[in-house]
Amino acid sequence: MLSMETLTYGILALLGVISLLGTYLAIIEKDLVKAVIFSALQSTAYAFIFYILMAPDIVLVYVPVAVGLYPAIVLFLIKKTGRLDGDEP
Amino acid sequence: MEESMINLALVGLGEIMVAVGVISDLIAALGMLRFPNFFVRLHAATVGTIWGAFLPLVGASLIAAGSEFLGQYRWFMSGGAIVTAILILILAPAGSHALARAAYRSKSAEVRPKSVDHLREFLKKEGGEESA
Amino acid sequence: MIEEEVIHFLIVVFPIYMAAFTLYAVRAVKGPTIPDIVLALDAMTYDLAAFLAVLAIFFRSPILIPTAIVLALWVYALDIYVAKYLESKEMGG
User: Fold this and answer.
1) pTM higher than the cut 0.80
2) How many angstroms separate the Cα of B12 from the Cα of each of B16, B19, B103, C65?
3) Which residue segment(s) compose the domain that A68 sits in?
């Protein structure tokens, strides 16, 4: 039978891998809209990590900022400027 | 005695709901991975949100209402789960619909298994009349 | 008696949920177009809300439940932002 500690550490490891992948893709990606959505994926994984670590107050603050407001502001900014990240400055 | 029978019935019903929800969740994830394009993947998303999120939340609410080891605050938990279930029942189809409409109108995803596309002709005609 | 049964059932449920999240994350990373990624993230987060409610029973702490409501509401907001961006940008409006 699986114990509670094994389950918790397994879930934490999986979420860490998912958030690392999201961060890497958000940095590498040339299309800025895709980068914003990968950042939202990383934020969702982090919210779950905070929940596993028993900090529901941090989750209540982190989710509106990192999933709600930050992509809204960055998408508004992308709409005002350009969508593709150019190679040469 | 009667109390414990009611609790047992609530917990059993809730566990059945959570089990069905988990199985359909796995099926929806497999479909999301294997289906060919966006408008086919919407079907998998429907299974994943209604059968995979709404039903386990109702089941979690029933389990919380029936398990006395959670203490007096289990009614708070049950009510919160029910509120989340109703919110997901309203929000998930609205979000999927908005996303599908945007994907169709912006031509960012193709409609592959199709024989005729009346909406595209209608939009083209309407746009042409507007620009003319 | 009920307690042990519920906890054993939930321990059986967890790996299936984690497998589903892994598959959703693979689609969100692979997804060729933007609506694919948003749809995978959306479905993953709604299922995550259900998983948080189940996990609150497992941890025996009812104070954890409001996070599920917040998560469901704000991911819907992200959905609407991206849909509005796509529709206003590519139609030239």
Assistant:
1) yes
2) 6, 11, 42, 21
3) 4-80
